Amino acid sequence: MKVPAYITDIQEWQKSFQFSISIRVRFSETDAFGHLNNTNAFVYFEQARTDFYKSLGFMKKWTNEQDDSMVVVADMQCDYLQQIKFDEELKVQVKVHRLGRSSADLHYAAQNEKGILCLTGRGTIVQISKESGRSLAWNEEMREVLLTHTIET
Amino acid sequence: MKVPAYITDIQEWQKSFQFSISIRVRFSETDAFGHLNNTNAFVYFEQARTDFYKSLGFMKKWTNEQDDSMVVVADMQCDYLQQIKFDEELKVQVKVHRLGRSSADLHYAAQNEKGILCLTGRGTIVQISKESGRSLAWNEEMREVLLTHTIET
Amino acid sequence: MKVPAYITDIQEWQKSFQFSISIRVRFSETDAFGHLNNTNAFVYFEQARTDFYKSLGFMKKWTNEQDDSMVVVADMQCDYLQQIKFDEELKVQVKVHRLGRSSADLHYAAQNEKGILCLTGRGTIVQISKESGRSLAWNEEMREVLLTHTIET
Amino acid sequence: MKVPAYITDIQEWQKSFQFSISIRVRFSETDAFGHLNNTNAFVYFEQARTDFYKSLGFMKKWTNEQDDSMVVVADMQCDYLQQIKFDEELKVQVKVHRLGRSSADLHYAAQNEKGILCLTGRGTIVQISKESGRSLAWNEEMREVLLTHTIET
């Protein structure tokens, strides 16, 4: 297996995830080639990411209309290691790989029921101000929460 | 062909549409059965509907954060007459079938490049208040615009 | 509440479902109006339907390339009773309302965590031959299985 | 603007595209943050890519059930430079950046009506055998066609 450039040691990397959700492939997510359409990997990563935000207590803040902060995705990437079929149950994992002033580099992994790694990914998220559109530094509380979930492997 | 209950005379009905858009089937919209996934018919209808709203000058109002009005879908239905494949170019039509106080019954049709009717549909839209969530009567101007596009066939 | 025409007694109807799945609203399924985009109701119904097929033992047959049978959706409709938000957990139910020779009229319901009915729906499915595209009668075994799940309320 | 690592000279890079399609943002593609949901960038890239395949004469071969070849996406990435709103018209471009034995590194760009670059991306596609699942070298004809569209800027 060719390991993506953002992963140093794939074994260590796989062990470093602490948060995961379970997603089962929907029929509407397959395409005429008979497998999961590649675009849906990013839907799965987003679902893991928003559930991760929620577990950190961030989602309430970002979906609160009164609050000036929101979060955007600056970049996303995915490596497709294994074809995924209808009705497969995936364990989709997410972690903070590196923490910035107002951003975080998140890493993603998805494995099937046999424990085979099917998808790996990464992407930078940035907290921004709704009003100015500019990046907004994590406050102390958020920073601490994020740091306890940061594993640079 | 079994004609859906909301259509009286299919020939007259097909001729009664004045507004249409063109949509080409994306690969990501097919499914493992090799055809357009049925759920995407409603994506196409929505696209025709929002373009129709836009042509009437309504979309600006409804997406304006300062304006209390917005529009919701109260019900939607679709009849699948013909299987649709990847890359087919569809002519998707929409019209007002009947006008209510704050609502409208919209009808939809989609035909392929050979002029074969593939999808028919209908659904009620309702203008509501963002604040109260209650229905909001069309104002005089909107009512007039909608009436000129209402064809009860 | 205005009860859709395909429901006789809404209380009886709600009690008649035996099969359900749980679906949580994804962020990518919301739209700029801040709620679940209406087109995704049909994605949820499809998910309930394919899981229902699977529970009946039909899905394996229909996704088997060697088997001539497959299933199509002849029509679908949905009534939107209650706005649905990001991250709500829905109980999506499906049942056979009426059984035909090669078809079945399926009914759908979705309720939120408070037990409030948010979506109701129905639609005809038809078993067809992959080769001829024509309807294919249920065999004895399928018919029996479907009959035990048919509740005409 | 921070230029993604896969782009050397952004000005040269932007000029190097020869193939483009036009895509207008659908309402169902926005999310509760009021903009295009990030996952749909990959739907747009896929649409540009399949139209590109079609223009090269490859799509017919790959969707032909009798032919053993098909194409898969090995990896995909996208950089989000500018927020994209409902109803914006995007020019989505694709080119071959580098050609392999059975693969190709494709680059993508999307700009809005004002000519502002909103999305950049890249990803490797691989031709594979349906039967073995292994990579399948481009034949002479395909190779020549791809080479005339390869611009390593």
Can you give the helix content of chain A as a percent range?
Answer: 10-25%
Q: Would you state the CATH class of chain A?
A: Alpha Beta
CATH H level, superfamily name of chain A: Hotdog Thioesterase
**Measured distance between first and last alpha carbons of chain A:** 18 Å
Morphology of chain A: globular
Rounded to an integer in angstroms, the radius of gyration calculated over CA atoms of chain A is 16 Å
CATH architecture of chain A: Roll
Count of discrete structural domains of chain A: 1
Poorly predicted tracts of residues of chain A: none
The average pLDDT value of chain A, as a whole number, equals 95
- Structural class estimated from helices and strands of chain A: alpha+beta
The CATH topology assignment of chain A is: Thiol Ester Dehydrase, Chain A
